[in-house]
Structures are given as C-alpha cells and as structure tokens.
Amino acid sequence: MRSECLQVEYHFEGIVIAVATFVLIGLFHPIVIKTEYYFGTKCWPVFAILGMVALLGSVWTDVVVVSAILGVLGCTLWWSILELFEQKKRVEKGWYPKREKG
C-alpha cells in the first residue's frame, strides 16, 4: 500500500502586500506632517512626480508583489498631496503647531 502525502501550498503574497500597505500608510502620516511643517504645501509636485514614478514602476516590473507595493506607494504619494493641504488646514485650526519663520 502506497501512502500519499497531501501537499499543501501556501501563498503569502497577500499578507506581504497587506503589511507593506500598512507600513507605507503609517510612514506617510508623519512624513506629511513634517513636510507641511518645514516646507508648507509648496512641495506637492514632489509627491506627484514620485507617485507617478512609483506607478510607472509598478507597470514595468514582472514581479507581482513588487508591482503591487509600487502601486500602493504611488497612490499613497498621491493621497499625501491631499493630506498635505488638509494638514495645512489642521495647522490653521491650531490642532498642530505652526512653524515660526525666522
């Protein structure tokens, strides 16, 4: 009698992408706050250009996990533009400190 072993295959790509998404969103929260504090909203084009580069990179790579993470990074950078202007409003409301120019 031949004993056959049931082989189970696990795919961790979804978990890796989920963790990367969580980390990127968590990283960009303080990045937006510090960027608005030191530079104001004038550097939003940097976020736009880096977002475009990340999204283009996601299209050009053959590795699905890397493509997904670059896509998340690109959209996170673009979303950060909106948050940069929202952060400006939060500073004006006094919810965050305003940088003293001098």
Work out the strand percent: under 5%
Mean pLDDT: 94
Helix content: over 70%
**Cα-atom radius of gyration:** 20 Å
- Number of self-contained structural domains: 1
Q: Give the ordered list of helices and strands.
A: HHH
Largest sheet: none
Low-pLDDT runs: none
Number of strands: 0
The N- to C-terminal Cα distance equals 85 Å
The coarse silhouette is elongated
Count up the helices. Answer: 3
How does the helix and strand content classify structurally? Answer: mainly alpha
List the helices and strands and how they pair.
Blueprint: H1 13-39, H2 44-60, H3 64-92
Helix pairs in contact: 1-3, 2-3
Give a written overview of the molecule.
The protein has 102 residues and is mostly helical. Helices cover 72% and strands 0% of the residues. The mean pLDDT is 94. The termini are far apart. The protein is built from 3 helices and no strands. The chain has one domain (17-89). Helix 1 packs parallel to helix 3 (64-92) and helix 2 runs antiparallel to helix 3.
